[in-house]
């Protein structure tokens, strides 16, 4: 019998740090979010994460002794031992942070560190859109583009724990420079950052949009304007969907999963994004590859990362999930 039914799930995003108190069935008791202090030094970042965990526990009105453990989902590369954040393209100062040890030492609880998209993928497999399938690929569409792969009900991490970096699949050999140092990555074209960059380029080249003169443009503003019929916004989302369609076609041809799940803030574009994705995959993927692959949006939404991180902790402890 468990002494506690609560896990802290942490989603360390490029824009926001999110935390939640999650039960052993994947339900969220309490959640909290704060802006990521991405330009600070390693110590400041570590302290911010520790404070977020403590504040989330307090906010849920439970005690630290009520916590079974802590699951951490981090963007970028995690070392083979699953202890250290090695590198994150969109968080340039997040290098070689031994966050698992830091968190375990502070709270005296079991802790697991997983790539954030892997964690989100596991959340969808555990209690989300993929709970009835054995294989899925998940793309997290936010500041960057993350990826997670589940094969035969197991996360696929690769030989060195760095598999599923789908955002850094090259789809244009001489394309724009990516934050990872390469050129033409999926992330350059299909992330929120990439979408905003292309939108600004169109405005600079004379395109007329209802957002012109609106100050700092965000992907959400582009989505909202597209829903209102803004042509430039619609064109940018359409183009983003085509790039994602190419990406998903490649995934289908390599892995042939039962399901591909799209998550993150950009999923808010809904059918405006999904339409071109489906058109491209239908045109370009082998029929045998796409006919049984469902392309869906996340069921867990913004909670996918925290629920998945908690589920990874439970799986590590061989309790459930």
TrEMBL record:
<keyword id="KW-0547">Nucleotide-binding</keyword>
<dbReference type="Pfam" id="PF00480">
    <property type="entry name" value="ROK"/>
</dbReference>
<comment type="similarity">
    <text>Belongs to the ROK (NagC/XylR) family.</text>
</comment>
<keyword id="KW-0418">Kinase</keyword>
<protein>
    <recommendedName>
        <fullName>Glucokinase</fullName>
        <ecNumber>2.7.1.2</ecNumber>
    </recommendedName>
</protein>
<dbReference type="InterPro" id="IPR043129">
    <property type="entry name" value="ATPase_NBD"/>
</dbReference>
<keyword id="KW-0808">Transferase</keyword>
<dbReference type="GO" id="GO:0005737">
    <property type="term" value="C:cytoplasm"/>
</dbReference>
<dbReference type="GO" id="GO:0004340">
    <property type="term" value="F:glucokinase activity"/>
</dbReference>
<dbReference type="InterPro" id="IPR004654">
    <property type="entry name" value="ROK_glcA"/>
</dbReference>
<dbReference type="GO" id="GO:0006096">
    <property type="term" value="P:glycolytic process"/>
</dbReference>
<dbReference type="GO" id="GO:0005524">
    <property type="term" value="F:ATP binding"/>
</dbReference>
<dbReference type="InterPro" id="IPR049874">
    <property type="entry name" value="ROK_cs"/>
</dbReference>
<dbReference type="InterPro" id="IPR000600">
    <property type="entry name" value="ROK"/>
</dbReference>
<keyword id="KW-0067">ATP-binding</keyword>
């Amino acid at each position: 019998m468990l002494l506690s039914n609560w896990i802290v799930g942490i989603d360390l995003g490029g824009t926001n740090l999110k935390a939640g108190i999650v039960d052993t069935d994947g339900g969220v008791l309490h959640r909290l979010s704060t802006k990521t202090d991405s330009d600070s030094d390693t110590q400041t970042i570590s302290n911010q994460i520790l404070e977020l965990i403590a504040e989330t526990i307090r906010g849920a009105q439970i005690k630290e002794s009520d916590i079974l453990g802590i699951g951490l989902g981090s963007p970028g590369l995690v070392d083979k031992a699953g202890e250290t954040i090695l590198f994150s393209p969109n968080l340039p100062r997040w290098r070689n942070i031994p966050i698992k040890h830091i968190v375990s030492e502070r709270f005296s609880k079991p802790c697991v560190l997983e790539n954030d998209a892997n964690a989100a993928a596991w959340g969808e497999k555990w209690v989300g859109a993929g709970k009835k399938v054995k294989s899925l690929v998940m793309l997290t569409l936010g500041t960057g583009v993350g990826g997670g792969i589940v094969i035969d009900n197991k996360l696929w991490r690769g030989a060195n724990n760095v598999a599923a970096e789908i955002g850094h699949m090259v789809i244009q050999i001489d394309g724009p420079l990516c934050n990872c140092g390469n050129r033409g990555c999926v992330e350059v074209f299909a992330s929120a950052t990439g979408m905003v960059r292309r939108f600004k380029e169109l405005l600079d080249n004379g395109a007329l949009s209802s957002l012109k003169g609106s100050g700092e443009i965000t992907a959400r503003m582009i989505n909202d304007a597209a829903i209102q019929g803004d042509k430039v916004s619609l064109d940018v989302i359409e183009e983003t969907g085509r790039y994602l369609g190419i990406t998903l076609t490649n995934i289908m041809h390599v892995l042939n999963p039962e399901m591909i799940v799209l998550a993150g803030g950009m999923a808010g574009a809904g059918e405006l994004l999904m339409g071109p994705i489906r058109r491209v995959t239908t045109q370009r993927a082998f029929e045998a590859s796409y006919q049984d692959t469902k392309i869906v949006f996340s069921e867990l939404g913004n909670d996918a990362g925290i629920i998945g991180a908690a589920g990874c902790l439970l799986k590590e402890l061989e309790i459930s999930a």
